[in-house]
Amino acid sequence: MLYYLRNIKSTVQQTADAIAAALKIEVEIADADLIRVAGTGKYKSQCGCPMDDGFVYRHVMKTGVPVIIDNPGFNELCQPCPCRGNCMEYAEVAIPIRIEDQIIGVIGLVSFDEEQTQRLMDNKQSLLLFLEKMADLLVGKATEIQQNHDRDILTSQLVTVLNLLHDGILLVNDQQKVTHYNTLAAKLLDIDAQEEQALYHLLDNKNLWLAVERGETFSGNIQGKRVATQLYCDVVPIKNDGNIEGAVITLRDLQQIKKLVKAATVNDIETHFSQIVGNSKKMKDLKAMALHVAPSKATLLIQGESGTGKELLARAIHQSSKRKGHAFIAINCGAIPENLLESELFGYEEGSFTGAKRGGKLGKFELAHNGTLFLDEIGDMPLHLQVKILRVLQERRVERIGSTRSIPVDVRVIAATHRDLDNMVITGEFREDLYYRLNVIPLTIPPLRERLEDVPILTQFYLDYYSVVTDRSVSGITSETIEILSRYTWPGNVRELGNVIEYCVTMVAGGMITSDTLPKRIKTEHKPEMIDSSLNLKVLERETIMKALTLVDVNGHKEDAAKLLGISRASLYRKIKEYEIGENRTFS
Q: 230-240 and 243-253: which strand pairing?
């Protein structure tokens, strides 16, 4: 710490005047820089000036030892002085002003006649004790001022930190009087800075303060008295020797919490219909239907095998709806244990069951308010939860576990499953009323084996994607490899194709993907026996044209397909029309 006598200049001058009046001798007090801070007599007019001739004081500052000089001008400490041998002073006493190991100044007494000198010499010890007491007074005042200064800085820093927090902060004493608050708390609670504030004027504090009196923490939703905003509150009691002396309260706007959740769920993955790859007729029809129903409020049921991209379609529908600015919350009903699924969907109140988090928890329905809730694998949901889901869909209200209060929610539900819900309804595994409530607009994603003509374009999509993701580009893929991929039945659907392409990109980084690069299972899949109808010439011709078009579908044109077939472009056009191949494909 740096202690400056100039910070207590008036006190230093008062001390100098008091010493001079008591001893009837002139006094000067200098700081650590040998600047005269205070003085009496002729020295008073020189306050604020440096002491260029303060050789004795400099020695005291350096050694920390008091000095008494009875022969000014001739003492060895006076040798550098230009007035040496012709000094106007008769005697001098100097004593350091010390704070621990730091010397912050010097008190000097100077006599200018024999009478003053005699008093100095006759009372050396008592004089030094008196000056030490005066020095202690100055030290005490300097310490107090420095500590106040440090405390003000610390207070300013703490206030700055509190005002930078994204939580409102209240400090209350044991009488529930608000002693401090930050700017956000003032805004959240509409606090009038001109009035003394009591906690019960600001918050519905009954349960909160009961917890504080028990010495317990409190967390949960709370209502403001002056504002309509719902707040989330954390309270920690302040204890001293077992006594409750108040509490620290943090406040957050519940709507702001939901906005943060929305920001985390909406902005991370934006999916558009252009990202659903496929030019087959089935996929075009599916995308057209999904795009048509996206702006509506209708509940949707997406059915399709695992790996077909049900969540991708749900996200695209959400992004094309009026809810796209709000949360898209996805939950896999088959991946969460049954005993946890209910609390994940509906949330719970504090203390509603053993292990419940302090303050309770918002459920997925509440988090998806004004947005979309995607219930993946709805066919795996237990029957007793199906009842609660049906009630939410009918009443548009949700009730947390352990609560008697229902909360209104505006949520669009998109459900998805790979299971046969029709059969599950017949067997009693799925509620018929919920099935019809979900199946307002059914959307079925075809398995990849039913749209093998999409394999080339999907392959190119994944080649581009994984080249970026893995930072391993490839020079291309052979037509033979495309043909093998287009014959495989893909039990894992689009997900399996993506995994295969990622494998290939990783294995041949910088090279060409050939049939040798493919996983063994892709090349050795059991081929179905040829049926008699395949010997029909027109069927064989149609299949051959389809195969040629598939091989050039990624980067080629009809002219390339005509060359592969050994016919003219005009002949190819005529045969495409004859065999109605154009109804299932889009070519350039």
A: antiparallel
